[in-house]
């Protein structure tokens, strides 16, 4: 059932309030014309409800704001979520409300506005009983409420956030309607290793069945690596990082776990990345990964200082390709640099650089030939100038590039994605490297996101504060030292931490690719890349920094993988059709 109401019938008094009971009525349509600069009315939920708002049929730019308390009686109250897209695009918002809870809805003119403008509108409200919403699949992981990037409606820090930051996520619960992941899509993580005893990861580690079921200290699958059940650790202090001679027998060690000798804190980097892609979901502990079920291949390519040497990276790439990985995630920020002073013989430095370029290109070409998707972090070299609000060249990958990026971003490599970071307000993260060679952005988190308060009367800036919009994920647990414990979120089942960086954005894309491949294994790496880019949100705020202004939209990607035409689905159609009136 549905009902159609006039906007001027709704207000703040009890008899003007809109009572919502999803068991009685699913749709409410509110139509009218905005006579003043804004119109505010109250909604009362008769029971716990999931409410979807869509503001459309616009002839001029109007915005939508949701409040927990009356903004007229309490001028300093802040909207807890909003829909404020520019122009005549439909605005949307989602929230969960409790039984007998009031929320306040404001429809506001977006300046500049003229009295000649037509302020006609239609607001569609769709209601479902909470827990009986067919559009959402919510896990029972206790830290899910901290994972704003997956689902902001239950974000624990809503009250300390801002409206512009609270209507942006990947749409994960909507995506999990289609799939929660597959163990048939191995994801290789070239990083600082993975804590293979973490309770939220141990069930989702890649398993080399031949080695698991074989003999100890025997290379059962004849791949050149002994007892590599979950992956490999490629670092060996005896290996010369400035030489491309073949790896000697016995270099490295099995399984790609985090070494005790690795520098504290940053050694958890790979474990954090792994949790974003594939922390076990709906298991009642910790966080949920984009894939509740996954196959995480642990490839530790970090030195004890958690730097990455070129020959270890390349060997890890070959291992991933040769052992069936469909996706390689490379969130590599600290690659060891060689300098001419490291070489004694004249010309040896240039020879080494030539060999390095050749080795990387061989690995990237091999990945393309074997249909492996490579997802790379763009880097954290962006620096926003406070004086000019312009970006310094150091973060511009069109003017300067990391060596790995330059090898990867060749036109014929249609299996590579370079990922920047977008903040929860849909703007480029200040730390993110950028440029038109960056394919897509994804949430990388911001542990100290500035929130600006304005005076409700004058509109002037009154105060600033910060909110934690970091990405919460798994970190080294059983062997963590006291310092690592002190900066982590401790639970009975392991440690977790809030972090930020393009290193967190890349595994968002890798996780999305794995989810897509899980529902459609026949796709090629080129197909998966095309789906991710085609389904991405195109944000004006990102266009100067990311090619096409693309930002990952997991839900749209899943719809596209299933064959839905999202362009046709997003075309504006009247919300209040004549038959309803």
Distance between the termini: 15 Å
Spatially, the strands of the biggest sheet line up as 13-12-14-11-15-16-17-18
What percent of the residues sit in helical stretches (DSSP H or I)?
A: 10-25%
| CATH 2nd-level architecture of the largest domain | 3-Layer(aba) Sandwich
Work out the count of structural domains.
2
Parts with pLDDT < 50 across at least 5 consecutive residues: 384-394
For the largest beta-sheet, the strand count, sense and barrel status come to: 8 strands, mixed
Question: Structural class of the secondary structure composition?
Answer: alpha/beta
CATH superfamily of the largest domain: Peptidase S8/S53 domain
What is the overall number of helices? 11
Give the amount of beta strand, in percent.
15-25%
| Number of beta strands | 25
Summed over residues and divided by their number, the pLDDT gives a mean of 86
CA-atom Rg in angstroms: 26 Å
* CATH-assigned fold name of the largest domain: Rossmann fold
Query: Any idea what the shape is?
Result: elongated
What is the CATH top level name of the largest domain?
A: Alpha Beta
Task: Walk me through the topology.
Elements: E1 2-6, E2 18-20, E3 27-33, E4 38-45, E5 49-56, E6 62-67, E7 81-83, E8 91-97, E9 102-109, E10 120-129, H1 172-175, E11 181-191, H2 209-212, E12 231-233, E13 253-254, H3 269-278, E14 293-300, H4 310-322, E15 327-330, H5 348-369, E16 373-377, H6 403-408, E17 416-422, E18 440-443, E19 446-454, E20 461-469, E21 471-474, H7 482-486, E22 489-491, E23 494-499, H8 502-519, H9 525-534, E24 537-538, E25 550-551, H10 554-561, H11 566-570
Parallel strand pairs: 1-3, 2-4, 11-14, 11-15, 12-14, 15-16, 16-17, 17-18
Antiparallel strand pairs: 3-10, 4-9, 5-8, 5-10, 6-7, 6-9, 12-13, 19-20, 21-23, 22-23, 24-25
Helix pairs in contact: 3-8, 4-5, 8-10, 9-10
